[in-house]
Amino acid sequence: MDFEKAKLNPAAVFKSPQEVVSSQELSRPQKIEILQRWEQDATLMEVAEEEGMPGPQPKLLQPIRDALHALDYWPDTENSGPSKA
Fold first, then answer.
1. How many domains does the chain have?
2. pLDDT tens, 34-48?
3. CA-to-CA distance for 54 and 65, rounded, in angstroms?
4. For 26-85, where are the alpha helices, taking DSSP H only?
5. Which of 4, 8, 23, 81 is the most buried (most CB within 10 A)?
């Protein structure tokens, strides 16, 4: 598996966020890094959809967050900015 490619475009390497969690080739920090990137991409897609620009991906934000939680990763959402992006 090409970690750099997965990090840059998780959807091109994995079919679902759960597949990242299940990967035997990645360490926990690598999985979290990939899922965080995927979360950023999904957030941007949801913002675009709200602005009337539908994207090709199904809604993945919650499955990505579920995958992060499965890795026992809980981001600090209280101190994040007010922006969705």
1. 1
2. 999 999 998 888 877
3. 21
4. 28-50, 61-70
5. 23
For residue 45, the enclosing domain spans 3-70
Contact assessment for residue 23 and residue 13, using Cβ atoms and an 8 Å cutoff: no
What's the pTM?
0.79
Establish if 82 belongs to a structural domain: no
Return the number of other C-beta atoms located less than 10 Å from residue 68's C-beta.
21
d(CA 41, CA 74): 18
Q: What is the pLDDT of residues 45-77, one digit of tens each?
A: 887 766 666 665 567 889 999 999 999 998 765
Q: What is the pLDDT of residue 38?
A: 94
